[in-house]
Specification:
Structural class: alpha/beta
Shape: globular
Radius of gyration: 23 Å
Order of helices and strands: HEHEHEHEHEH
Strand content: 5-15%
Largest sheet: 5 strands, parallel
Number of strands: 5
């Protein structure tokens, strides 16, 4: 009988705890969904404004593995990021986080628009992929937007960046 009361008490306490915490869990889940929505809408608006397309980690890996001639650009700072790890074969060209509507050499480590054009090359139909650290980072948006402004036709932004690349357990390189 005592055992039955103990089990009953544990069940009642468990149900009470669940009933008190489930609204908190639900609210947290709902708040997270609002954050996801805000991030998704922000990304879509950047893509629409920039006139480029997006690519996933898997799609980029498949593109690299295909052997197609592509240019991959890491838009993160050289010492703080690129030097430590980057997508294999990526070149580095710094872009700022705030939107850069006018070219600003103070935001690009002193590099000019002509330096960027030289990196992009003369083939306006070449596939160019730009990335930064993670979805909320907008350095890659600036790079992709500028490549598009300069007339390049196949510009892709890899919004998941190096975090998504590592999360997919793809190999990285370090600067030599």
């Amino acid at each position: 009988m005592r055992m039955g009361k103990s089990v009953f008490s544990l069940i009642v306490v468990g149900l009470l705890v669940m009933s008190l915490t489930s609204p908190c869990l639900a609210k947290n889940k709902l708040e997270k969904e609002v954050e996801k929505e805000q991030e998704a809408v922000k990304l879509v608006r950047e893509v629409q404004q920039g006139g480029y397309d997006v690519i996933t980690a898997k799609e980029l890996k498949d593109l690299i593995d295909s052997g197609k001639d592509i240019l991959i650009i890491d838009t993160m700072p050289y010492d703080a990021s690129y030097k430590k790890m980057h997508v294999p074969g990526a070149e580095q060209f710094l872009f700022p986080i705030p939107e850069m509507n006018a070219w600003d050499t103070q935001e690009t480590e002193g590099k000019t628009i002509d330096d960027f054009k030289a990196l992009l090359g003369p083939d306006m139909s070449k596939t160019i992929v730009l990335y930064c650290g993670f979805v909320k980072c907008t350095r890659s948006h600036n790079g992709a937007m500028w490549a598009t402004k300069l007339g390049y036709k196949k510009v892709l932004r890899f919004p998941g960046g190096i975090f998504a690349w590592k999360g997919a357990e793809y190999p990285v390189e370090k600067a030599k």
